[in-house]
Amino acid sequence: MSNSREYFKSAVSVDNVIFGFDDTDLKVLLIKRGEEPFFGEWALPGDLVYPNEDINTAANRILFDLTGLENVYLEQVSTFGEVDRHPKGRVITIGYFSLINIEKVSPRASSFANEISWKNVRDVKELAFDHFKIMTTCLYRLQTNLKLKPIGFELLPERFTLTELQLLYESVLGKQLDKRNFRKKITKMNIIKDLNIYQTGVAHRPARLYSFDAESYQQALKEGITFEI
After folding, report:
1. Residue 228: inside a domain, yes or no?
2. Mapping DSSP to helix (H, G, I), strand (E, B) and coil, where does residue 179 land?
3. Band of the pLDDT at 33, cuts 50, 70, 90?
4. Model's pTM, two decimal places?
5. 76, 80, 104, 127: which could form a disulfide with 131 (CB 3.0–4.6 Å)?
């Protein structure tokens, strides 16, 4: 191949989509860029991969450099390679996502991130580069995962109500669920324990409390489980 050098002029980057849940809303962690291109605009925590760096290592390093978050489980979702997605040249990016408990982390803006903020996913309409497309692609993966397996239980208190569980699902799926149908399906799966105790110190009628039964879930997986809500 006479002009093979042309094939080695592309750069590789990583963009992280960090979702969080705060009792009622699904949010995404964004940074305000402090450098060109797209100076002053909101974007995903992302950057170029070092030439001698593994992709997964880069994802964790970049997330830490821009937000201070570490030890976050990141799942690789897709590759985005439109020729003109970056104004400075050909940059192919790999999108990662994670779902974390907002109350357990304290992100901080650093490096070229001038500001950092949790934004309601439904309020985000535009981002730098093609980051909105990356975010929506990762959101679809999250929604698909939620329908197939009980992710997100770690975002709830150790003891939770069925209303709190339903709010989590509605927030991620972006739609309202029928209360009676949701409760019927979730209890039929036998993956939550009825603790036979009720809420205390609430202004409304106390609701029953439940916990996630990890052992029963593992057994259900072996037998074949459909987690479609």
Report:
1. no
2. helix
3. very high
4. 0.88
5. 127
Cβ(211)–Cβ(196) below 8 Å: no
Instruction: Give burial (CB, 10 Å; 0-12/13-18/19+) of 186.
Output: buried
| 17 CB-near residues (< 8 Å, 6+ apart) | 28, 44, 77, 95, 96, 97, 98, 134, 135, 138, 139
What span, in angstroms and rounded, lies between the C-alpha atoms of 200 and 16?
Answer: 39
Per-residue model confidence (pLDDT) at position 9: 80
Per the structure, the count of domains in the chain is 2
pLDDT, position 26: 94
Count CA within 13 A, CB hemisphere, residue 164: 21
**pLDDT for 226:** 64
Strand 91-101 relative to strand 75-80: parallel, antiparallel, unpaired? Answer: antiparallel
- Does one domain contain both 86 and 141? yes
The whole domain housing 189 covers 156-223
Give the number of C-alpha atoms closer than 13 A to the C-alpha of residue 206, restricted to the C-beta side.
10
- State the pairing for strand pair 11-21/46-48: antiparallel
5 within a domain of the structure (yes/no) = no
